[in-house]
Amino acid sequence: MDTRLTAEQDGIRRTLRELLHKRCGSPELRTAVDNPAGYDPQLWSALADQLGLPGLALPERYGGVGCSVTELALACEETGRALAPSPLLATSVLAAPLVLALGTRAQCAELLPRLAAGGLTAALAVAGPALAGALALTGGNERYAAGGGRAGGVQARRAADGWLLYGQADQVLDGHSAGLLLVAAHTGGFARSRTRLFLVPAQASGLLCVRQTVLDPTRSQARIQLRNVRAELLGEEEADERAVLAALAALGDGVATVLACEAVGAAGRVLERTVEYVGQREQFGRPVGSFQAVKHRLADVYVALQAARSAAYYAAWATAHGEHVGGLALAQALEALRTAAAEGIQLHGGIGFTWEHDAHLYFKRAAGDELLFGPPHRLRDRAAETSGLFAHGEVAV
């Protein structure tokens, strides 16, 4: 593994950091989360038009840049630094790869260029608090089911001219603002049930998308309610019933890798701000940062951050080379972010506990991602399971 960034990778990061520094400071961030969309549409347009960020990991034949998940993850380290609210995770990390993997040629040709250009945003709607399970991050998804309509989840049934969806999905990232929904639905009855993905436009009759009040305001979520909504099946009708679950499981490692880099970027930024503050704040006639106890606490955060960054970078490299270690990297990155944010709140003193300061936003990002994609101990347990670490009942002592 060559740990040096290529000129292209370094250019993407540097340009993105400069843009976010100008367009996503603290005042702009707070304005964006109060926007009905949950993000700044003008910033999203700039990310799409100037950097091609939505299509960074999509093939050139569909209007993308043609890079890999590695470049997308490194770019997301910068969006994590700024806690930039945008539909990037929902559109480019969760939805677009599924369209590419499962969609027909016609569906890919119609949707992927619009997703790559940023003119169309998309969201993955998975029933219940089960996104991590569906992506096989915290356990195998072989038995995952999208639900059964009124009993919970989303049910799909055939109609004379297509499919109808009925049910509800909570915790849909950017679902209220997305122009297209990828809805996981239960088909085939209970004797031979299976999960399929369906395309639902935001203007579909019978669809209700309501933005939810959530712990992390920089990561918008919505409740999706479908009442006999007409939908288009993603992929071929005769496709293997296991293809969807396999595609979700394959997607999970890339999602974890991107989230790990995001968390590392956020942890790095909160540590920088904390070090700057304790170097300026004085107590007993000297900077707080000169006290040995404070130095030790910040040193511990720095070590945790560097270890998490190494794991995230390795996962970003490994994903493009067929190795799957994103879950472990995400577990370490989430713990590093939570530690960095908690220490930042403490060492900022009284101001660190106020809503006016940004420290709580970083802590909420760590806690919110743990709820959606973790927690770390479940991520590690899944990694141990897939590697066969305890397959023979042996435990290290």
Summing up helix and strand content along with how strands pair, one would put the structural category as alpha+beta
Number of H/I helices: 12
Sheet-strand content, in percent, reads 15-25%
Low-confidence stretches: none
C-alpha geometry: globular
Q: What separation lies between the terminal Cα atoms?
A: 31 Å
Order of helical and strand elements: HHHHHHEHEEEEEEHEEHHHH
The overall strand count is 9
On the 0 to 100 scale, the average pLDDT is 91
Largest sheet, described in full?
7 strands, mixed
Provide the helix percentage.
40-55%
**Taking Cα atoms only, what radius of gyration do you get, to the nearest Å?**
21 Å
Describe this structure in words.
This protein is an alpha+beta fold and 397 residues long. The protein contains 12 helices and 9 strands. It has helices spanning 7-23, 26-34, 41-51, 69-82, 88-102, 105-117, 131-134, 243-280, 292-319, 326-347, 359-373, 376-387; strands at residues 122-125, 154-159, 162-173, 180-187, 194-201, 207-211, 221-233, 282-283, 286-287. Strands 1, 2, 3, 4, 5, 6 and 7 form a 7-stranded mixed sheet that branches. The protein has a two-stranded antiparallel ribbon with strand order 8-9. The longest helix is centred in the middle third of the chain and has 38 residues, at 243-280. It is globular. The model has no long low-confidence stretch (mean pLDDT 91).
